[in-house]
Amino acid sequence: MTMIHAYLSRISGPVIIFASAVHGLLFLAFLASLILLDPQAARAAEEPPRCEGRDLYAELQKTDPEAAAEAERTFAATPNNKGLFWRIEKEGAAPSHLFGTIHTTDPRTLTLPKPVGAALDEADVFVMETADARSKLSASLAMARHPSLFVYTDGKSAFDELDEEQAKALRAALAKRDIDPSTATKLKPWLIVGMLAAPPCELKRKAAGLEFLDNTLADRAEEDGKDIEGLESMVDQMRALADMPMESHLDSLANAAEMDDYAADMVETLTIRYLNEDTGLVMPALEAIGENIQGPLSAEQQAAAAAFEKNVLTGRNHTMADAAEPLLADGNAFIAIGALHLPGREGVVALLRDAGWTVTRVPLDTTN
């Protein structure tokens, strides 16, 4: 068993939560750069290079083609499984657009395809997952008003739930990201897992002031004088995580430090699926990577996966689709949300169609 196999054999459940941190939970990355990264180091550093990693799914296709083929079958059976950019229409409303994003600073994801840039420039309003997450003041107020969503308020620490070896590995992983472990010790585990999901190179790029796709879109809209709206709040996102069983969070935390050496590989794997517009392949691919090594998920891992899907994906899909409808009715909106929220029977594309909207994919060239 190689090092990568030993690592993956322990993350087939937590890998699902890792995917959400990269694709779906904008606020986790923002929070890390806001309160935990050393601002002096950020100001002093030159622009860090983009992260480099391996495509683990491409490797799986070579080492276990049957497992990859099963992932492809799941992908093929997933509604709206391909596409990042969608046109939304209904009689009586000017057409709007929906764009799936990935929350990294990778330059390959920041160059907008021409149809996307044109739709953004022509839109009357820009809509993102959490508009309040762009404001340091809003983030600080949210933490002050809802401290239990962010930190332990009873004297406990997530580190207390780890054995000595796990705690040591976690502190080392935080230190690589210029995060003082003593500062992180009181954070709730979902915040720590979210920060560790991003490799050190990615967090250092954020700390150096490099924006990820959602914020570059918002900045462009703001410079053009557009209103900026949010489909949910950062507190909504934190509650979606907090409502999951604590045991699954602690299990993820125990494994997160061991993901450290391969975090860049996971981000690369996700980014390639994104650039190929294969949004419906992300979850089957990640599950196949883990299950190929570990075997079937345990009952506990299945429960954690179900809780993740309900709280972090499906539940939020309904919230965002419902919140989008009044903006779509006003017409000419540009909506940008994490790409994992688009595919599936209860993805945002399907939910908008169920609500009577005509949603049509606009193919893109995202490989340039």
From TrEMBL:
It comes from the Bacteria. Coiled coil: none annotated. This is Polysaccharide biosynthesis protein GumN.
